[in-house]
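Model: You mentioned two targets. I'll fold them one after the other.
Researcher: Yes, keep them separate.
Model: Target one:
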Amino acid sequence: MKKDSQIQRKSARAVEVPRIVGKAEAPRTSVRKPSTSPQGGVPQLAAVSRGSSAGRLTKQMIERVGRGVTGACIVLVALLVVTLVAMVAGRGIATFTADGIDLGSFLTGTTWNPHQDDVNGMPTVGALPMIAGSFSVTLLSTLFALPIAFGSAIFVVEVAPRFGRRVFQPLVELLVGIPSVVYGLIGLTVIVAWVRGAADAMGQTITGFGIFSSAIVLAVMILPTITSLSIDALAAVPQEYREGSYALGCTRWQTIWNVVLKSSAPSLMTAVILGMTRAFGEALAVQMVIGNAIQMPSGLFTPASTLTSVLTMGMGNEAMGTVYNDVLWSLALLLLVMSLVFIMIIHLIGRKGAAKRG
């Protein structure tokens, strides 16, 4: 009996061992063969690889299309710029190459009468009165707008940011959308009349037209441009600069004057130059209030003219190919050159500012 029980125990142990081993080996993972479709087609892994390759091809096509579209936009803009510059330059230079007018007399002459010949038998086309008028109006309007624009920017960024951002800045930006003719009408009916009335009160008799009235109108027109760009310039100054100044015991206005304004000086100069560019190229509003007298400005309250006012008055009245038409294209070329000079100044200021920031 004892022998039978021992034999049964040994056999039971022998039976239990494979069960334990089987449980221990159960977690082993087995590699499954790729299943095939019921029709005996391509394996699913091949289908997945085809889908991923198709997705990569689609992404590559999208990248190529995006590069092609954006590149075409760049080429289009470059062609437009080159075409405009070439067209204006070609027609403007014809005054000196085809018509034989001297460049020096054109830039320094003080008499403008293209229909009348001078002693040398050439048309009298002295552009100096328009050049002087354009620069006078531009500089005076910038002088009027600059303190208001900088003061408004300081208020919006440093004094009352919530009110400035939510209320004041949107109101200022609304001025950008007002057409130039509206500014001209307001200047004609309000500014010119006010200047005339103020002169009458002082015993002077003037028409009210002139550089002063034009400068006031242009100052209002360029005010949103200078103000918005000045706000962005002041807001770009790191807050750590202000905190460091306060930590040294400086007041708010000392911090604004010695830290904020000096740090943002290049960007503020860019805002001023852009405002001057806008003022230099304005035509309709200036034409309505400056008086359009082609003569050297003898004062701020005497009628004068600018390059843009002469262009708008004369371009539609002369036939293409005539000397007068070529001379007007030369005035347009002069405007274009001045705009390019302003843009170059902006880039130089930006580079110097970036160099100072390191």
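Model: Target two:
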Amino acid sequence: MAKTKSPPSLSPSLKLWRSRKLRRAGKNRKLVVQAVEYLVSGGAYFWTGYAVFAFLWSGLGWSLWWAKLGANLVGWTVNFMLQRYWVFRNPHLKKHLGQVTGRYIFITLVDFVMDYFIVYGLRQAGLTPYIGQFVSAGFFTVWNYVWYRWWVFPERLPSPRHPARKHVRPHHLT
């Protein structure tokens, strides 16, 4: 019977390098999946809002302000649910729903004002609001990902400190 040769064992530094490389590959895959989920949920937000805007603007004849606001209210609801519970799902954020929701509302209101003026400005320049929304969506795709990833839905939020408990550093005890 022929004796098979076992593969040589890896040195500790090579094992460490390999484990880091595998961890990095896992993180990169997670980011790619998250980016795809973000784009899908952003598409759901955009097309839902776009359809509502078309109905309110063209169908009911609402002003640009009210049609954008109505469309965004519907889109924001869809977007928050998908971003919070699918794209940036995180068990650590369960206890922080109020804080996360407050951050989402804040950035969404900033977005609404910016979005309105982008679409309004493009309309003044001769572009229809239907085209203006695509231009605006291109900007907000990148803008919102940055805000959502690192501020609205971060991997961890700092734990709240009890106001009665003052944090004392050991080197200040002397």
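Researcher: Noted. Anything on target two?
Model: The mean pLDDT is 85.
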